[in-house]
Design brief:
There is one protein chain. Helices cover about 35% and strands about 20% of the residues. With about 675 residues, the chain is of the alpha/beta class. Among the domains are: about 1-40 and about 165-175, no CATH class; about 40-150, OB fold (Dihydrolipoamide Acetyltransferase, E2P); about 245-280 and about 295-415, 3-Layer(aba) Sandwich (Rossmann fold); about 445-600, Rossmann fold. The strands form four sheets. It has a seven-stranded parallel beta sheet with strand order 11-12-10-13-14-9-15, sandwiched between helices. The protein has a six-stranded parallel beta sheet with strand order 16-21-20-17-19-18, sandwiched between helices. Strands 2-3-4-6-5 form a five-stranded mixed beta barrel. It starts with 13 loop residues before the first helix and ends with a helix. About 40% of the residues are buried.
Length: about 675
């Protein structure tokens, strides 16, 4: 038996169990030993029955005095046993496991672990973990009396079953586990075979942590190695004709803008234009806070591409955002003779309407997923821009890239990603950060609003709207849900606000299930001041830009991450008037209130994202990543120190030996990793 052996050939598995294991993505022996526990039950507290107390996690050993099945009125089976260890007796209770009376019989010696509860006037262990013993001294076994691993399960595959199989198979194949890390890295960590033993069956939590560090480091190291290797390959890609950067016309265009660019915007434009002048395709990520001015950066570079008689494709995740970009590009580029086209699911440009009869397509094409259509064939593409790139799957981005021959590639995101994580996860991209707010932008005053002050908040909103301002009210859901029964649903909240709270104002409703034309109509009415309050789901997170809107109300604010709340409040504060964000929460627990109050004082999206990492973990950073994203089994993106160590180590190796000739085992591992990771 080796690491690639199918699990069906493990003794006691067979085809039926192998099929169930596939639901856990366990197909081979290697998959099985890489199915790691997500927590441990601490059953190391060996106790005499006479000394146990309710609420304790304990392990006891004794003799079964009796075991019987009884039935409740609802026909549920209760299996009850009495165990005695010489110091006293204790009840054991299992639910719906009638077969236990055939596995455990009176007179058997067993070791049991579990949490002690009070059942009536008696102490009992409900659903204890058990295994038979020899009746001798207490011992650390597999399922009791130790740190007991608990695994992700599926129907018919329990943690107890997984423990048994992993403990059975690990000694047989552990010598086959070869460590691919270079010697200079191995010295800082446990040997790999030992790490596998201790990740599953540690004697102490310290042993588990050492094993976790070793395996998590390898995960992050391979990710860094893969992305950095991809970056080197991208730089060696088929040579492209370097674009001629007309600095004079670029500067004239920038000076003609009705606003002054920040130094950060100018720096990023220079970084991109420098890339466009190289002989290999650009592959750059621009990260900028909400309202930092990423769009105008794309506009300037689309103009540079136009001056080189090439086309630009700009892809956005929603029709709202695509339309917003289309209008912005039209405003600034059309006076310069640049033709801009919109291509979405509901709107297609006319291929024959171009001023130049020799040219079939517009110079700049803005669109949504519709740009991926096989029907759309665009020639002479020099630049591909993807906005909010984490909202597209890897395959979609690759397909768009394939529509042109080695185009320059620019991706943009407003999602605040801590730099170390961005460099690791998007390590094949050069990174530009717009870290300044446009001049004149006022800080958005943000307040957490407790339940008792909600009426006052509504009065404040009404007062602002009476001055001619507008407001957003964001709800977490579209319709009422059984699983989130207390969440404010947009449709229900719209009715409530229209009839009871703001009957004298004009309200509009926006959510993802509206047809594209309906969404556009609502947005246009809001922009044209025909709607005072826009009730919406978080679909407005990107793309809706209404300078007259000065109030952002977020219902169920605790359901959003801090970074997403920051992006939502970025929809206001785009005009000259002071803007406000009001956070309404369904719960007033101190933990939730303290988390939300961070938005009152912190206005930097990057700092909020880092704070979310500490408070909530990595979900807010990677929660919107789609297919092809790194699927870490053990590594935590919040462990910035380990990420930095892994990236530095990968960069060091590639700088000394790009082809990994000195590290054949590592080269083989990298080849497999790159084969399964989409471009």
């Amino acid at each position: 038996m080796d690491l690639n052996t199918s699990v069906r050939y493990i003794p006691g598995v067979g085809p039926a169990m192998a099929q169930k294991l596939q639901l856990l993505r366990i197909m081979t022996v290697w998959d099985l030993i890489n199915h790691f526990p997500f927590r441990f039950n601490d059953f190391t507290n060996f106790t005499n029955i006479s000394q146990i107390r309710a609420g304790e996690q304990v392990t006891i050993q004794g003799q079964i005095w009796s075991i019987t099945n009884t039935y409740t009125k609802s026909r549920r089976v209760l299996t009850k046993a009495i165990v005695n260890d010489g110091s006293g007796s204790l009840d054991l209770t299992w639910f719906n496991q009638p077969y236990l009376t055939k596995s455990i019989r009176s007179g058997d010696f067993i070791q049991v672990s579990g949490k002690v509860a009070k059942f009536g006037s008696k102490l009992t262990i409900l659903v204890p973990v058990w295994e038979k013993s020899d009746g001798g001294s207490l011992n650390s076994s597999l399922h009791t009396g130790r740190l007991v691993p608990v695994y992700p399960e599926t129907l018919g595959i329990s943690s107890k079953w997984l423990r048994s199989k992993i403990s059975q198979i690990l000694p047989q194949i552990i010598a086959q586990i070869i460590d691919p890390l270079p010697e200079f890295l191995k010295q800082d960590y446990l040997p790999l075979p030992e790490a596998y033993q201790k990740i599953h069956f540690p004697n102490t939590l310290d042993e588990f942590n050492q094993a976790w560090q070793r395996l998590a480091f390898e995960e992050l190291f391979l990710v860094s190695l893969t992305t950095l290797k991809r970056r080197l390959e991208w730089q060696k890609a088929q040579a492209v004709r370097p674009l001629l950067i007309n600095h004079q016309k670029m500067n004239q265009f920038i000076l003609s803008l009705p606003f002054t660019l920040t130094s950060a915007q100018k720096r990023v434009i220079e970084e991109i234009s420098f890339d466009l002048g190289k002989t290999h395709p650009m592959n750059r990520l621009v990260q900028g806070d909400v309202g930092s001015g990423k769009t105008i950066v794309a506009v300037v570079n689309a103009y540079l591409v136009y001056l080189n008689k090439l086309k630009t494709i700009i892809m956005a995740p929603t029709e709202i955002l695509a339309l917003q970009h289309y209008q912005t590009l039209n405003k600034f580029l059309t006076p310069l003779g640049v033709e801009v086209g919109l291509y979405t699911g509901s709107q297609k440009f006319n291929h024959t309407r171009s001023k130049d009869l020799q040219k079939e397509d517009p110079d700049v094409i803005v669109g949504t997923h519709a740009l991926l259509s096989d029907k759309l064939q665009i020639k002479n593409v020099g630049l591909v821009v993807i906005d909010e790139q984490q909202r597209f799957g890897v395959e979609q981005r690759s397909f768009l890239r394939s529509k042109a021959s080695s185009p320059h590639f620019l991706t943009m995101t407003a999602t605040p990603i801590p730099r170390t994580i961005a460099l690791t996860t998007y390590g094949d991209l050069d990174l530009s950060i717009i870290n300044e707010r446009p001049s004149g932008r006022k800080i958005i005053k943000t307040y957490y609003v407790p339940h008792k002050k909600r009426s006052s908040a509504y009065e404040f909103i009404a007062k602002e709207i009476s001055k001619g301002r507008q407001a957003y009210i964001i709800t977490p859901l579209i319709e009422e849900s059984e699983t989130l029964i207390s969440a404010k649903a947009a449709v229900v909240e719209f009715e409530n606000l229209s009839k009871k709270i703001f009957p004298r104002f004009k309200l509009g409703l926006l959510h993802g299930r509206l047809k594209p034309k309906e969404k556009e109509d609502v947005i246009n009415k809001f922009k044209d001041l025909k709607i005072d309050i826009l009730v919406s789901t978080s679909v407005v997170e990107v793309g809706v830009d209404v300078p007259n809107a000065t109030i952002m109300v977020i219902e169920g604010a605790e359901r959003f991450g801090l970074a997403q709340l920051h992006q939502l409040r970025g929809r206001v504060g785009r005009g000259d008037e002071q803007s406000y964000t009001l956070l309404f929460a369904e719960s007033e627990s101190p933990q939730i209130v303290n988390r939300l109050k961070n938005l009152e004082n912190i206005h930097d999206g990057l700092k909020l994202a880092e704070l979310d990492l500490k408070i909530r973990g990595s979900g807010e950073i990677f929660g919107t990543r789609q297919s092809g994203s790194w699927n870490f089994k053990l590594a935590q993106p919040s462990d910035l120190e380990l990420i930095e160590r892994a990236r530095t180590s990968a960069a060091k190796i590639l700088s000394e030996d790009e082809e990994l000739d000195k590290y054949p085992l590592l080269a083989g591992k990298l080849q497999k990793q790159m084969a399964v990771m989409p471009d």
